[in-house]
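ARCHIVE CARD
CATEGORY: sequence design from structure
SOURCE FIELD: tokenized fold
FIELD CONTENT:
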């Protein structure tokens, strides 16, 4: 009599595993790689309009492409949401602060940050911001903290936290005026 219960248990396990594989198979991926920020901006925007959503970013050297930024995007079957993206890249922290705030005023939220060496811009800190189509626009206030000293960074982040800002991402890289710096992006919802 144990054989039928074993067979039923085995079949139930197969159904669970098949369901897990089906759930995992609902995602498709797109890998974007380029050394030009304008090209990446365009490719991310096209992918976002096709329903792909940002997953991860990394700047560095690839075997074939050399120094470039690589972005991973994902699409879930059945999800009809589209996305709009901006790639903000600069060697000046003050410019990045300004561009982040402009994006925040337009309802974009930060989803990624990296440092990479582009063909024309040299070594840049890059931030990727995203906005979902059809959603109510939520405005954000951004503050960028860039410093060569980790003790200074901790104090500045503590001060910003007291004002309601939350740290979102961190990179270590070369900036035009600061040299090697730790760059942290913080944000809070914009106050009316």
């Amino acid at each position: 009599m144990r054989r039928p219960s074993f067979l039923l248990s085995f079949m139930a396990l197969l159904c669970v595993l098949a369901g897990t594989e089906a759930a995992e198979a609902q995602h498709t991926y797109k890998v974007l790689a380029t050394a030009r920020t304008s090209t990446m901006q365009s490719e991310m925007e096209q992918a976002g309009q096709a329903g792909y959503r940002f997953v991860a970013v990394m700047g560095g050297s690839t075997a074939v492409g050399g120094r470039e930024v690589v972005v991973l995007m994902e699409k879930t079957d059945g999800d009809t949401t589209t996305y709009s993206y901006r790639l903000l890249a600069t060697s000046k922290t003050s410019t990045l602060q300004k561009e982040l705030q402009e994006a925040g005023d337009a309802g974009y939220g930060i989803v990624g940050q990296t440092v990479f060496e582009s063909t024309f811009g040299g070594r840049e800190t890059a931030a990727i911001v995203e906005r979902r189509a059809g959603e109510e626009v939520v405005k954000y206030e951004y503050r960028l903290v860039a410093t060569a000293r980790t003790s200074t960074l901790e104090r500045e982040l503590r001060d910003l936290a007291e004002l309601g800002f939350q740290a979102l991402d961190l990179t270590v890289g070369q900036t035009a005026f600061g040299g090697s710096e730790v760059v942290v992006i913080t944000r809070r919802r914009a106050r009316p």
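CARD ANNOTATION: The radius of gyration is 21 Å. The CA atoms of residues 35 and 119 lie 6 Å apart.
SHELF: design records, drawer C
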